[in-house]
Every structure is written in structure tokens, then in C-alpha cells.
Amino acid sequence: LPALAEYFAEQVDNDITVVAPDAGSGKLVRRFANLLGEFEIPADLAFIDKRRPKGTQNVAEATEIVGEVDDCSCVLIDDMIDTGGTITSATEILLDRGAGEVWVMATHEVLSDPAIDRLKNAPIREVVLTNTLPIPEEKHFDNLTILSIAPIIADALNAVFEDTSVSEIFK
After folding, report:
1. pTM surpassing 0.85?
2. Which of 34, 60, 79, 155: disulfide with 86, CB 3.0–4.6 Å?
3. pLDDT for res 54
4. Tens of pLDDT, residues 109-138
């Protein structure tokens, strides 16, 4: 999360709203907004109410937004992207409700079918993922950015050998 926040802080300069794509991401978006605050970037929070239609699998519908997104750079933060249904549905409702642009960030990328098609065809400014899982070349697309977690792993190993706090690295 700190690597994602640092990257995002370097990219944007307008009003920011950090958005939870579902109920389970509430704590994650609060942490991300707090990390942006360390870069002196104020961020509002918004939450999306998501439903899964009865009798379906890997289908998600964003039905409502709680929070202000009008004319903002919205960043959807999630721990994992599997099929991309939640993220693309959330992107659509954010833009329908007036968001200026939508960024997508996630720590872990499973990217099961049809995730790549959904992400590359969605009106997303940029998809930013870490390389906690390998992303084969055939799954790369134009607006995809992959951040290396190697510096974080190196810092964690160094902290272990120096007997300092590993949790401090992850803020």
C-alpha cells in the first residue's frame, strides 16, 4: 500500500477521492487516504454499495455511491483483482456520477478471465498493480503500470537482520 500511495501521490494534483469498491475495502481505503496525507495530499473517502445478482458467479453490480465524487480523480483501491467485475462496475458508476477520472490500484493481481478484457476496455485512466504475483507479458495492456515490491522486501529483510521493526515499513 505505501508503494501504491507514493506512486499515486506523484501522478495527481487535483481533488482526490479514495473509493472502496465494496464493503470489505473500508479499512484499506482509510489507510490509503492516510498515506496520501503523509504526502500532503488531502483525500475524501467514498464507498460503493455492490450487489451480486442472485444465481450468478463472478458478476458484480455497483448500485450506489456514498460520498462525493463529482469532478474528482477517484482511485479505487482493492486488495485483489480476480475477474475485474467489481472494479469495472465501480468505474462505470463513478463516471456516471460525475467523477473526472478513475484510477484502479490493487496489491494482488489474480487476473482470471475475463479480467484483462474488462480492464483494458474500461474507461480507466490507469491500472496500477504490484508484482506480488507474476504478470505474464500476454496480460499487459496499454494503461497498466506494474510496481515492483522488491524495495519493500529488501527493507523488510534488512529490518529483520538489524532487529528493527518490520511493521514500520508497511506503516
Report:
1. yes
2. 60
3. 73
4. 999 999 999 999 999 999 999 999 999 999
* Measured distance CA(16)–CA(100) in Å, rounded: 10
Instruction: Say which residue the cell 450487489 belongs to.
Output: 51
Interhelix angle 150-161/2-11, nearest 10 degrees: 140
* Per-residue model confidence as pLDDT tens digits over 19-47: 999 888 999 999 999 999 999 999 999 99
**E strands present in the chain:** 16-20, 43-51, 61-66, 73-81, 101-109, 126-130, 144-147
pLDDT in the model for residue 47: 95
Cell reading at 84? 475485474
Q: Residue 152: is its pLDDT beyond 90?
A: no
Q: Please state, in angstroms and rounded to a whole number, the distance separating the CA atoms of residues 2 and 171.
A: 7
- pLDDT higher than threshold 90 for residue 60: no
List the catalytic residues. Answer: 50
Phi, psi of 101 (to 5 degrees): -160, 160
Angle of helix 26-38 relative to helix 2-11, nearest 10 degrees, comes to 60
Strands 43-51 and 61-66: antiparallel
